[in-house]
Amino acid sequence: MRERRVKCLSQAGFHDMAYVEWGDPANPRVLVCVHGLTRCGRDFDFLAQALAGDYRVVCPDVVGRGASAWLANKALYGLPQYCADMTALLARLDVEAVDWLGTSMGGLIGMTLAAQPNTPIARLILNDVGPVLSAGAIGRIGEYVGMMPRFADAAQGEAWLRIVLAPFGALGDAQWRHIAVHSLRRAGDGMWELRYDPGIAEPFRAAMRAEGGAQDVVLWPLYDAIRCPTLVVRGALSDLLSAATAAEMATRGPCARTVEVAGVGHAPTFMDETQVGVVRDFLLG
Questions:
Q1: How far apart are CA 87 and CA 58, in angstroms?
Q2: 100, 125 in Cβ contact below 8 A?
Q3: Which CATH number describes the domain made up of 2-133+218-284?
Q4: How confident is the model at residue 9 (pLDDT cuts 50, 70, 90)?
Q5: Cα 216 from chain centroid (whole Å)
Q6: Which H, E and C letters describe the chain, residue by residue?
């Protein structure tokens, strides 16, 4: 694993985006894995290790998360900035095309890029996200995003993460510990806190207020413009991506292949061999 950074540009100037890279740096076959709203690129460590023999796997921390910089202007946290940053990353990688795996927000970024003319995305994996985002899930996420609890120690923080991220499914102690290590940081006063900018919630909540509360987000025109081979992975208990939407995704746009993961909500973590196998089969089968 190699830790790297790339400079990206916003209206307020340059900022650093951190990413980790696995596998042969000269491998022209590249898989970019992008995380969800409050998560980080280290969520994909298990998947990246499993695929590093076949792929150069690149896992960025979207700006405002993980080891990346925070934006001074919180209003810029949104898809236009995220897509611009990812374009800078793709230029750094110096390859003609990449495969893309995106969880939730990372899937929305991938959909946006894949729908563009002359896109560099060759194959797309959407992890528990699609062109209809349910109002219930948006409301649930709005209840905790940007709320920054503080913890006396890392164990207390891990216990909180196990509750909030329970939809991830039945993970083992080592897996929860991995999530906690990369989700928490120690503050200057010795307390522990979450490792993302609470300001990412500002545009999220502003959009909710403008709509009069959480409402379904519908992005079918974006999805219908995608032409590359696409896989949709859905948690069988997901409240963000409905079974009906996943089924419709199989019949329009790129006519995605769909797989459902039993016992998991929002979202599958690709931390076990069965889930990793779903990705491997699509990319290498």
A1: 13
A2: yes
A3: 3.40.50.1820
A4: very high
A5: 19
A6: CEEEEEEEEECCEEEEEEEEEECCCCCCCEEEEECCCCCCHHHHHHHHHHHCCCCEEEEECCCCECCCCCCCCHHHCCHHHHHHHHHHHHHHHCCCCEEEEEECHHHHHHHHHHCCCCCCEEEEEEECCCCEECHHHHHHHHHHCCCCCEECCHHHHHHHHHHHCHHHCCCCHHHHHHHHHHHEEECCCCCEEECECHHHHHHHHHHHHHCCCCCCEECHHHHHCCCCCEEEEEECCCCCCCHHHHHHHCCCCCCCEEEEECCCCCCCCCCCHHHHHHHHHHHHC
Please give the pLDDT value at position 98. 98
Burial of 227 by CB count in 10 Å (0-12 exposed, 13-18 middle, 19+ buried)? middle
Tell me the domain boundaries of the chain: 2-133+218-284
Nearest to 95 by CA among 56, 152, 40, 151: 56
pLDDT tens per residue across span 185-228 = 999 999 999 999 999 999 988 887 777 777 889 999 999 999 99
Of all residues in the chain, what percent carry a pLDDT higher than 90?
91
pTM higher than 0.85:
yes
- Please give the pLDDT value at position 209: 79
Burial of 173 (0-12, 13-18, 19+ CB in 10 A): exposed
